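Need tokens for this chain, all 633 residues.
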Amino acid sequence: MRKIFTKNLEALKKTNPLLAQKVESIKENRKYEVFMGDDPVNINIIDTDRNEPLYLTSAVEETLNKLEKLKEKQKYPFLYFFGLGNGIFFKLVFESFESIKRIVVFEPEIEIIYIVLNLIDLSSYIEERKLLIFSSSELTFPLAVDIMVKEEASLYSKLYELDFLSAYYNNYQNEMLEVNSLMTRAIEHIIFSVGNDAVDSLIGLEHHIQNFPFMVKTSPLNKLVKKAKNTETAVLVSTGPSLMKQIPLLKEIQESVTILCIDASFPILYKHGIKPDIVFSLERVEATAGFYEDLPKEAFDDVVFSLTSIVHQKLLNNVKSENIQMSMRPFNYLRYFKNDPWGYIGKGMSAANMAFEFAYYSGFKKVVLIGQDLAFSKEGTSHAKDHTRGVNDVDLSRATVYLEAYGGAGQVRSTAVWKAFLNFFEDDISQTAGEMTTYNATEGGARIHGAIEIPFGEFVERFVDRDFKKESISIEPCDEKLAKEHEKLFYERVVLMKEKLETIKKECEETFLNVVGFLEDIEELNKKNKVEDIDFQKADLLLEEINHIKEYFDESEFFSMVFEFVRSYIISQELEVAKIQVKHIKNDMDKKVQIIEWLYAHKFWLFSLAGGLDAILVVIKRASIPDKEEVMA
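Here are the structure tokens for all 633 residues:
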């Protein structure tokens, strides 16, 4: 048994080292006793505190019954369970159903994990990450997101269901509900992050092409990152209703801290005599340009502006400064162009998320958030006093979400968008915690898990050296040779993109027409009660055509070109296709029905993809890209 435990523990150390450490610290059973019957797999575990077994009857019978019920889900690639039981069930699942890619198990008792790892050799499944075991208490929102984005798990998220292994786990209803809540929140976040408007991405591409000649003249991102840390502490300024209470103290210490602010905060800070070090803008909408519109030239002096390449040209025109660094958001279509020196930043949804990323990349050990309410005030306002678009820029009618309040005292009203910003913050804070400590001195709004809540005055007293005076940050324009080299590369990549998309679009349209014709034939046969005449050989050929087109998404280059533009509707359709794919097939008729359902589902899939490719080509044409001969010269 000790040999089995060692193998399992070594595998667990590779996939969940913190849990492995907790399991290894257990030296003997304290709460549970193990009973083994004549059959070596008839293992029951007794909770001696409750005097209750994990299996009320025969462990073997309950396991086999559970396995039989699972046949309805045998094509589900991802399964989720609360409770490890005696572990035998999971070994049998992998031996019985080849289509299972991964099982995720949340177990509330470390001692049960210890017992199972001593009894059953699961090492190969654990090491290959086919079996992911977690203590239910260790699950956090960032970890739940990580679980759901691994491989293709998100494409099957509509099939998510948290099953429990035996009646014993009803003793852990609260833990089970918490796990389920975090997992469903992660799924919502992933689907929300995909977005529902491909037009936004197309606008982003058009703005990027328009801004590209300017971008390559600005400093590469890494040069700004190296200069940004002009103090030991970064203060990240947002525009929540609570901001005004922090303004007087921020003004006092502005020479001793690095002030990173979002574009909406810039005019507020200027009005109150505070000059930020770096201002961040990442959105593509024209309205963002208004934050810079009515400010005098002196407001821009000695301030660096970190802009993404998808911002509206009006915003670029309104920034009255030469101290600009333009980077790219980490979208696949922007990475495709390979202009890496200008960097990728802004994976979150807000300028504040972008500023947080920047603080981490710049090497700050401490970052403090102020004005980061992510919620309406008690009075129902959405933004700070002096906000350019008013304190009620977001209408209170959008307060459809309730979040845990700052300090843990009750709940605050929020919106789905602000909740998404919060999710990105919590995910980023979790990932950077080992190298940067995040403090939340907003003193209002929503609680941001992972950030240490502290009054701004106390933070300043503990961590800010008022005697230290910072130097202003300045950046140089890009080397002309590097700029020209990447300009040529960019236009070459655009031409290649155009040619590839035209070819695949034509293939999509042809397959779409073939599928439409076949389905029309089926409908005619159905009207005549001659469904037995359906040509399933032709159907198989159409399936091959569809699969050939879907294989393009396995090519990293094509995936990079199109994913952001088509994902909002392609992924939503793939979620529905997944339901068809995992259906339990009992006979030949079930198989034929599945084929027809598959073709109907991909009729709109093909139409959507062809339309998406056409929209990208329209944007490229409208951007007046040089022709191939001129680019390749």
